[in-house]
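Journal club prep, notes for RB
We'll compare a predicted complex against what the paper describes. Inputs for the heme C case:
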Amino acid sequence: MLRRTIFAALALTAGAVAMHGMVTNDAYAQAAPGTVFSTGQAQRGVGAYSVSCAGCHGTKLEGMAAAALIGEEFRARFANAQDVYDYARANMPADNPGGLSDATYLAAIAFIFQSNGKQPADGPDLPPTGLAKVLWK
Ligand code: HEC
């Protein structure tokens, strides 16, 4: 009986978490076109980030040799995805500035935004221009 109660409580908690996640995704899926990166970009960004950025910024974006790319302090320095893209393309990776393809920068930035709480949508990939509409929230 006690076991059953515990199980029911756990199932309820899991349900609440799943529903919360769905609500968040729906909100982003309904966002105006061009205001959010695609699911595919975010997924490719995991690999792009780990190959090209994690060595200095940490596998969890927590900062190592270089600054953290997660958290309020970081977000406060860049108003939108265009700012991050322009900065990264001109200066990153620090040992090979501008050395990656546009698609790789975009994917890495999609992953950075996702890691800061922004959810992707099942729309087209973001192009390397017009990223100013992509905000942290
Ligand atoms: C060889 C090391 C290295 C690699 C690899 C690297 N970075 Fe950096 N990054 C730095 C350094 C150094 C800074 C300057 C700030 C600091 O000293 O922490 C920096 C700063 C940044 C900043 C500005 C952070 C802030 O808060 O001002 C961003 C954004 C950034 N990098 C993105 C990237 C991205 C995206 C990649 C992968 C495409 C990448 N970096 C790869 C070393 C690196």
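Talking point for the session: The helical segments are 2-29, 39-52, 54-57, 72-77, 81-91, 102-115.
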